Amino acid sequence: MVKQSGGKPGSTKTPGGYADVPHGIAADRRLKATDCRVIMALLFHACDRSECECSDEQLAKYAQVHERTITRSLDSLEGLGLI
Questions:
Q1: 83: closest CA among 3, 15, 27, 25?
Q2: pLDDT at 31 over 70
Q3: Could you tell me where the beta strands, DSSP code E, fall in 2-70?
Q4: Are 39 and 77 a contacting pair, CB within 8 Å?
């Protein structure tokens, strides 16, 4: 699902490339902008796998938000059945 032309998972640099975002995610009005950033971070770290193994700290660096924001967003996404 994620296509990369540069950058590495967990790096602090902005990764190059692009990610395919499912239409259902892009059009879901229940999602806040932060939730979308967290989904993008999950897609980046998943690297074409169905699972993502990374820390809240890594997600926070990629999404450029605080780790507590990651926790809240993950709880919200789980409650919506998206993760």
A1: 25
A2: yes
A3: 2-3, 18-19
A4: yes
pLDDT band at 45 (very low <50, low <70, confident <90, very high): confident
Pairing of strands 2-3, 18-19: antiparallel
Q: 55-75: string of b/e by CB count within 10 Å (b at 16+)? A: eeebbbbbbebeeebbebbbe
Q: For the purposes of burial, counting CB atoms within 10 Å of the CB of 79, is it exposed (0-12), middle (13-18) or buried (19 or more)? A: exposed
Instruction: In whole angstroms, give the CA distance from residue 65 to residue 57.
Output: 9
Q: What is the pTM of this model?
A: 0.74
- Average pLDDT on 28-50 reads 90
* CB-count exposure of residue 21 (10 Å: 0-12, 13-18, 19+): middle
For residue 20, the 8-state DSSP code is P
